Amino acid sequence: MSDSTITPWVVGNWKMNPMQANSQQLIQDLKQFLEHAPITEQQCHVGVAPISIALLSIQQSLQGLSTPIKVVAQDLSCMAGTGAYTGEVSAELLKDSQIDYVLIGHSERREIFGDDVNKVKAKVSNALNAGLQVIYCVGESLEQRESGQAEQVVLQQICDLAAVVKADQWHNIVIAYEPIWAIGTGKTASPQDAQNMHAKIREGLIQITEEGQRTAILYGGSVKPENAVELAACPDINGALVGGASLNAESFYKIALAFSKQNN
Ligand code: PEP
Description:
The protein is built from ten helices and eight strands. It is α/β, with parallel strands linked by helices. An eight-stranded parallel β-barrel has the order 1-2-3-4-5-6-7-8, surrounded by six helices. Helix 9 links the parallel strand 7 and strand 8 (239-242). The mean pLDDT is 95. The site of phosphoenolpyruvate has 13 residues, from strand 8.
């Protein structure tokens, strides 16, 4: 079971949305909720992952907020440093722009953009070596779940991670369990199914590192205000990675509130 000192994380993955004006509006709306009823960093780490060209403007818009919101990149290059790699943004360049968090291994990147295990490992390694904090996504397809392979697939993804994380880097890892069949489909894993997988991930992590006791494991897949409270009550679910519902400030705020420590 999770260490009770784990601070939950709720991160909004905006994916390839929205237009700049709407993303600024979304941030202004979210700020209003947070200014009216703050969620402190001790209660929950709240983050948003906008499109890459909005990272800096969103970061700028969030300045001065009494409860800081983390700005998270949705991806980064598997190449490190600087160089002749057209279209790429490296871990070092993100860090240089004070973007300290990055999602890696999201199933959409793995499935649509060819992020195979070697690329994912290179990205994790580059991110950690540059001092970024990584939200590492794992999850099985419907076919894998139905054929009884879900646990094996997810634990293999944790082993892939362990192959590149150095002993003193585990504190910079957050895991997001996102069953692929639940992403953007409206189907959520039942709290019991999600909890079972989170407990397996926790067991796997503890076998690899002492830090596994304290690693936040987020659930992702059609999280909404309506199911957040039940998911948040599960002992090994330490937050959420939220897609669709993060594009609405009120929904996202309610999800963050449901996971925030004041309620658990
Ligand atoms: C996601 O893409 O990370 C996600 C969880 O999406 P949704 O909440 O829309 O299922």
